[in-house]
């Protein structure tokens, strides 16, 4: 199993195996199901999951990560069907016995928030935006994927690139 994480600005954050990232996005969709009708989580559940975040999407995405964290912090970890979310007990770095789902996913929530902040800061300092993207972090695939044209992601349907073997 290969490792994935977030990349953007001047930083890469490896978080764990692809199955754990699937759990993170599954829990993000779960948090979105508790949102009010006017809240659109597609910046996380589609853009960050399958594509990349554009510069003008960074602030709203940060807000959504914070909202998702609040919801996930209220959900007991022992009441979640982890395998249904894609959790693989043979390939995981998640401690699913943590108190809340937010505790289980703290590295992912912090990673998303930090990479978004880094990308925003990089753009302000250097006037160059490097999009926040979910990416395979194992070399050499990372070096291939970070050079993939954004148009490939824009046209993407179905499974995200980071889930393809």
Provide structural commentary.
- By secondary structure, the protein is mostly helical.
- The protein has one domain (3-163).
- It is 45% helix and 10% strand.
- It is built from seven helices and three strands; from the N terminus they run ββαααααβαα.
- A three-stranded antiparallel β-sheet has the order 2-1-3.
- A hairpin with a 2-residue loop joins strand 1 and strand 2 (11-17).
- The longest helix has 21 residues, at 106-126.
- The radius of gyration is 15 Å and the shape is globular.
- The mean pLDDT is 95.
Give a brief description.
45% of the residues lie in helices and 10% in strands.
N-to-C span: 9 Å
List the quaternary state of the chains.
Answer: single chain
Number of strands: 3
The largest sheet has its strands arranged as 2-1-3
User: What is the radius of gyration?
Assistant: 15 Å
Query: Which class best fits the helix and strand makeup?
Result: mainly alpha
Poorly predicted sequence stretches spanning 5 or more consecutive residues: none
Number of domains: 1
